[in-house]
Amino acid sequence: MKIKSIRIENLKGFENSGKIEFSPTINVLVGANNSGKSTIIKSCYAIQPRDMHVGLATFEWRVS
């Protein structure tokens, strides 16, 4: 599964992120500490199918 874009609303520091679009090849998140880079990564991880969760135990968020 490839994620083309994501919108984060009412999660941690994001009231409304607007549409975040991803490149089909490589993406780099750059920002100051506590700016939400990990929240974006964890949000992408959270919407992956359950069978994709194997081996990624370092993230504490799970899709229920």
Task: Describe this entry's structure for a reader.
It is a single chain. The protein is of the alpha+beta class and 64 residues long. It has one helix and two strands, in the order ββα. Helix content is 16%, strand content 23%. The longest helix is centred in the middle third of the chain and has 10 residues, at 37-46. A two-stranded antiparallel ribbon has the order 1-2. 5% of the residues are buried. It is globular.
Largest sheet: 2 strands, antiparallel
What fraction strand? 15-25%
What's the mean pLDDT score?
Answer: 78
Q: Unreliable runs, pLDDT <50, ≥5 residues?
A: none
Helix-strand pattern, N to C? EEH
- Identify the strand order in the major beta sheet: 1-2
- How many β-strands, per DSSP? 2
- DSSP helix fraction: 10-25%
Please give the radius of gyration in angstroms.
Answer: 12 Å
Q: How many helix segments?
A: 1
Distance between the termini: 18 Å
Summarize the structure.
With 64 residues, the chain is of the alpha+beta class. It contains 1 helix and 2 strands. The model has no long low-confidence stretch (mean pLDDT 78).
How is the secondary structure organized here?
Layout: E1 5-11, E2 14-21, H1 37-46
Descriptive keywords:
alpha+beta; globular
